[in-house]
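Marked as duplicate of an earlier ticket. Keeping the data here for the record.
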Amino acid sequence: MERTASAVWKGGLKDGTGAISSQSGVLNETQYSFSTRFENGIGTNPEELIAAAHAGCFTMALSGQLTGANLTPESLETKASVKLEKTDDGFKITAIHLTTLAKVPGASQEAFDTAAQNAKNGCPISRLFKGNTEITLDAKLV
């Protein structure tokens, strides 16, 4: 399986603008710029897209882990927070924090915690950042 996306940038770093598009068309010339990345401009940015990808990836992995334990989630809601910091080597994503609220009828706290940790460690986006970025998880069974 291979997925694609593209980006176009016009102009200098601070005064230029770009557009991101995805193969599926969900992103179609979606605007991004210096102000959307480092300030509060309107549009998207790479870190926001990584956060969305990680939230989606982890949540699907958690569903898979729970299903494998014969538990059917009623709902799983995940927020991912990506921290971008300037380091001596330049800007770097230094941390990603996942926060999940789950409704899983019949799940014990232990089974849920095991599934959540396995999903955090095993989802492809987590694995992409493993060893390079701190990934933390706050998963609550409600």
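See parent ticket for discussion. The mean pLDDT is 96.
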